Amino acid sequence: MERRILLIEDEPGLVLTLTDRLVREGYAVESATDGDTGLARASSGAFDLIILDLMLPRRSGLDVCRQLRQSGVETPILMLTARSQVVDKVVGLQLGGDDYLTKPFDMMELLARVEALLRRAARGPVTSGAVYSFGPVRVDFKSAEVTRDGQPVVLSAREFQLLRYLIENRGRVVSREELLKDVWGYHALPSTRTVDVHMAWLRQKLEANPKHPEFILTLRGLGYKFAG
Ligand code: CA
Fold first, then answer.
1. Phi, psi of 26 (to 5 degrees)
2. Cβ-count burial of 56 within 10 angstroms (0-12 exposed, 13-18 middle, 19+ buried)?
3. How far is the CA of 70 from the centre of ligand 1 (A)?
4. What residues make up the domain containing 41?
5. Of 34, 108, 127, 170, whose CA is between 20 and 30 Å from 177?
6. CATH of residue 214
7. How far is the CA of 11 from the centre of ligand 1 (A)?
8. 55 CA distance to ligand 1 centroid (A)?
9. CA 92 to CA 62: how far, in whole Å?
């Protein structure tokens, strides 16, 4: 079945390039060039994925995202942010965005993120709108809030995405390469060492004894497994 993408973006050049490329990949693409029109189209719920620029005329991308989630539209949202909008990424994920890309981005990376989001949606939203608990840790996917023993744990946007990915794939071994591809994006980083560093940070924040983790397990030579 043809998958439908709504592109909400006001830069004409980018709309052309993206539409052209996505259509060549086999997607059906519609576009809106301001926030109001984008919100109206997206509210139909007729799309499999929304690509949403955050800086838009008439209504900001963050507002579009918030309104959609408030009205119960669960379509996956890939947000496009400018390099200067670091704070907006975290806010955007808290408002219900599913992933973000910083402009300028590589087209292959965008396609990889689109594929990953559509795959995740096809598996069923195990985590969207839900609260997931393991041990003393509680993860609220709607508000992107994490607590441990009732105390708030501050995760970066990337750490939160990584945790969500682990939970969605719990009980299964995920390789560093898979994590790089699905959480960071296609050839975004030179080294799988980055995955290890982020895993170490997550353990520091979530595990009682990070040296002997209970939940985020390392499988030598294979990757990681979430056992929560
Ligand atoms: Ca813009």
1. 100, 5
2. buried
3. 23
4. 4-123
5. 127
6. 1.10.10.10
7. 6
8. 4
9. 6
Residues 113 and 200 reside in one and the same domain? no
CA–centroid distance, residue 105 to ligand 1 (Å): 14
- Could you tell me the pTM of the whole model? 0.64
Q: How far is the CA of 53 from the centre of ligand 1 (A)?
A: 6
Kindly give the distance from the C-alpha atom of residue 54 to the centroid of ligand 1, in angstroms, as a whole number. 6
The DSSP letter of residue 126 is S
Residue pLDDT, tens place only, 79-108: 998 866 666 667 777 777 888 888 989 999
Tens of pLDDT along the chain (228 residues) come to 789 999 999 999 999 999 999 999 999 999 999 999 999 999 988 899 999 999 999 999 999 999 998 888 889 999 998 866 666 667 777 777 888 888 989 999 899 899 888 887 776 555 555 788 888 999 988 788 999 999 999 998 889 989 999 988 887 889 988 888 888 875 555 678 889 999 999 999 999 999 999 999 998 888 999 987
Tell me the CA–centroid distance for residue 102 and ligand 1, in Å: 12
What are the two backbone dihedrals, phi and then psi, of residue 84, each rounded to the nearest 5 degrees? -80, -10
Distance 83 CA to ligand 1 centre (A): 12
Backbone angles phi, psi at 2, to 5 degrees: -70, 130
Looking at the structure of the chain, the number of domains it has is: 2
Query: Do 205 and 113 fall within a single domain?
Result: no
91 & 157 share domain = no
Structure tokens at 166: 């682990």
